[in-house]
Amino acid sequence: MAAFEHKYDQNFTQHVIDTCGPKTSPRMKTIFSSLARHIHDFAREVDLTPEEWLAGVDFLNQTGKLWAESDGKRNEMHRLCDIVGLESLVTEIANYVQTEDPNYIPTSSAILGPFWSPNAPWRELGDSIIESPHDGYITYMHGIIRDLATQKPIPNVTFDIWQASSNGKYDFQDPENQVDNNLRGKFKTDENGEYRLYCLRPTAYSLPRDGPAWDILKALDRHSMRPAHIHLRITHDEYKPVITQIYPKDDPWLETDTVFAVKDDLVCDFKPLKSLPSNMPPHERHGGEAVRELELDITLAPKSMLQPLKEPITDRSA
Amino acid sequence: MAAFEHKYDQNFTQHVIDTCGPKTSPRMKTIFSSLARHIHDFAREVDLTPEEWLAGVDFLNQTGKLWAESDGKRNEMHRLCDIVGLESLVTEIANYVQTEDPNYIPTSSAILGPFWSPNAPWRELGDSIIESPHDGYITYMHGIIRDLATQKPIPNVTFDIWQASSNGKYDFQDPENQVDNNLRGKFKTDENGEYRLYCLRPTAYSLPRDGPAWDILKALDRHSMRPAHIHLRITHDEYKPVITQIYPKDDPWLETDTVFAVKDDLVCDFKPLKSLPSNMPPHERHGGEAVRELELDITLAPKSMLQPLKEPITDRSA
């Protein structure tokens, strides 16, 4: 990186930063300064040509055009950030919790993605979230949610779960085959901090292969696959939320997830189900349809361990 | 910058880069690797929040939407690059010519901007480019175009000039007051490498104050002014083209040009005109209307001094 330092005008970047006036908010100044330095260093490092820069301008314009033409439904700009790892990175940053013992950390977060619904129905412990036909493996999923500091179970945690069906589509994308809220549900942990429910062993799927994100993936000789995953959003007033995804350990796309959302502690073992607990009441047994079992404990950090929130950048409407 | 290095996953960025497949072109790999590193370092350096990142996604979507809704006429994405100095920087990079003596360099380049026209008329030496009424100072502009290596004058150079009128608008933007090709023209240097013509002393103007670029300028507490300038595009088959802008030395916006296109050697002295050359023929005197004089010599680098061209990134249609 030292090679370019003396080649081009050494004062240029600082000059751009120094044009910010005294009324810039400190956070805006911090963000703009860092962004300008990195964009300039990038351009100098690769000797970016005017044609390459203009190709980038055109590419971002075309990407915004797709969003405008779909009335905001298709957000390829968001997807571009995902395939370069940016959403995964800001998720890691937001969920960073400093602990003295590196083995003593909360369950990792992973990107929320575009398919969460605020309208998922409340369900009872032991219910199934499966409401429409599928070709998947029904899975008995259960576990304990614990406090990072005390390791004690936490009652009354909201456990919000959503997943694609065995055809790789969410209910939103597949109204012909799935009823609304198929494979979605919210549960509360019981007095022992336990949740239990039935879901599907998840299925891998591809990002859309007809837009700017796919153009970039092709140019990088990359695939468009996400590993099979189940989304979780685990919340309690006294704890830092965990928004995450879990993955079957034998999925072939774990290492190269096209949005880089896999973390080691989120890889799970969907085992063949030997038997349901002998004390399970009949209405939770669902006729013994389950063929897999996933036991997954979750650790939440108390809010007292949070990083301070950033001040807002600026009011853009001002 | 060292503070974040051990805070977040140290392998993440290299992992994102390593997903590029073997069929990525070397240039694409170079650009993607550098861009991913700088975007990630930026996010870690400022602890970018998910809300800030999403505000950025929305901002770029809105910017692309303006372009789509104007059928490509309003390119705010390009303008955003200008106000962070990126177009000026890629122009500097593209026009970098290494010479052993730092005082021995070609005339600096500056951004082309959106107002160049391929259809400007050819004019004769000594003609005026002024065709419509104005409130400006008519200027007799002349000079010699020289070879950087030999310092000899170059005959038959194309000298393409365009500028806004005294109201700060180009002919495209002002059809009520200006005829087509007002304040535009192409000239050829004579056997002594000389050009001469009449133009206006230029007038400062503001970028549009109703879009994303203005939103950013407000948030940075910056103004939207460009210093007064005249555009030049100087070409000859055997020389590296010089696309540039020149500025009157007493303009108040030179130091803080909102697109950062001012270079020291482009700042000129528009002097009061004492007299036109005594041997100038009557048809070049235009009734003695000129009140200012600008003498500006230009130096062109022979193409043998060029940097090698980059290979293309990729064929996006492939």
TrEMBL record, chains A, B:
Superkingdom to which the source organism belongs: Eukaryota
Entry's Gene Ontology molecular function annotations: catechol 1,2-dioxygenase activity; ferric iron binding
Domain Intradiol ring-cleavage dioxygenases: 113-300
Residue ranges constituting the Catechol dioxygenase N-terminal domain according to the UniProt record: 26-98
Family annotation (Pfam families): Dioxygenase_C, Dioxygenase_N
InterPro entries given in the database record: Catechol_dOase_N, Intradiol_dOase_C, Intradiol_dOase_core, Intradiol_RC_Dioxygenase
SUPFAM superfamilies given in the database record: Aromatic compound dioxygenase
Known cofactor(s): Fe(3+)
Record's keyword terms, sorted: Dioxygenase, Iron, Metal-binding, Oxidoreductase
Similarity field: Belongs to the intradiol ring-cleavage dioxygenase family.
Name of this protein: Aromatic compound dioxygenase
Organism: Polychaeton citri CBS 116435
